[in-house]
Amino acid sequence: MPKVTAIRCIRTRANGTWTIVKVLTDQPGLYGIGSASDHYHNTTVIHLIEQSLGPRLIGREAGHIEDIWQSTYTSGYWRNGSLLNTALAAIDVALWDIKGKEAGMPLYQLLGGPCRAAVPCYAHAVGEDLPSLEEDVRRYVEEGWPVIRCQLGPYGGGGFLDPAVARRPKNAWPSSQVFDDEAYLENIPAMFAYLRDKLGFGVKLTHDVHEHLRPQVAVTLAKLLEPYRLFFLEDALSPEQIAYFRLIRQQCTTPQAMGELFVNPHEWLPLIQERLIDFIRCRISKVGGITQAQKIAHLCEWFGVHTAWQEGGDNDPVNLAAAMHLDLASWNFGIQEENHFRPEELEVFPGHPVLERGYLYANDAPGLGVDLDEDKAAKLLDPEKASRIFYMAEDRRADGTVVRP
């Protein structure tokens, strides 16, 4: 059985927010890759892997995935943090990649074999007004996408007011826009009324609240959207307010998807056990990798909850590949978030998943089926852009209070 000899971090993408971890073994040419990408704390995760987690794994059996996961999980005593989970996930996925290469099997075969021919994904339709949103939805319908997410502009779109018309204090802090819960509550149901009138009910639609609402308003929104039969309503509540899902479930049947910000089992366990959500939306790298995500998927199966792993936006092709393999092998898979990459980005990852007309396709290569071209990865990195520090958007209400994403 191969043993771990080195763990390396390779930073790439123009802005430097992708980090690919390469786990090397004592068998010539045998290595695995995983993703440690974190858009906001990229260099912190790299330091964690290179200075803390990586050295303790040198000399260990690469095939002891569960033992490595468990011992790494508790190696710093405190656990279930997003950065530790990201670092752990990168190593975990790389070890699964090695295991698949050893077996000569694609990872989805190693996880139990495929439950479906390909992975259906949902598209991200957006418009600054209703006609432009309708046009974007129709574009995805014509392309064959099975499910389409609908947003008015950015996250919180439909709830933003011009500061000049918002009721702000006389000493208001500078702000280009103001978020208003009641405006959102008015505009988003009107958005779906418009889309259903124009498109009918044959198109499966979703919407992402992105945790912007006060809990009571989120409950009301879910009730108001019930007539429009969404495929799901995503992240209606922040992780701090998940108890309100009980009120949503008691008062309406709008399907709920939740978990993009989850990192701790105590966040998802009550929602699954009490059947308060319909789709689990964790990002695989933020819960600790394939080892943990597959356990979540199996748990969800017995409570009627589907998986919808969050792999869009700032994520990379390696994380998307990990999600795809789980999607193929999980009976209770629901839908996969799509992600689009520029051609020069995909060239860095030969064997990457292929997205066509709303479906994601794996190849038959062993392991993840994805490799890393380190020369192209280095050339893709722009040192000037990579020096920038990223923060989450700072949306605020009229009085200046920060809106939690």
Strand content: 15-25%
Coarse structural class: alpha/beta
Q: What is the level 1 CATH name of the largest domain?
A: Alpha Beta
The ordered H/E elements are: EEEHHHHEHEEEHEHEHEHEHHEHEHEEHH
Q: From the alpha carbons, calculate the radius of gyration and give it in angstroms.
A: 21 Å
Describe this structure in words.
The protein is of the alpha/beta class and 405 residues long. The protein has two domains: 103 residues, Enolase-like, N-terminal domain (Enolase-like, domain 1, 2-Layer Sandwich); 263 residues, TIM Barrel (Alpha-Beta Barrel). It contains 15 helices and 15 strands. The strands form three sheets. Strands 4, 5, 8, 9, 10, 11, 12, 13, 14 and 15 form a ten-stranded mixed β-sheet that branches. Strand 10, helix 9 and strand 11 form a beta-alpha-beta unit. Helix 1 crosses helix 3, helix 2 packs antiparallel against helix 3 and helix 7 runs parallel beside helix 8. The longest helix has 22 residues. The chain is globular and about 65 Å long. The mean pLDDT is 97.
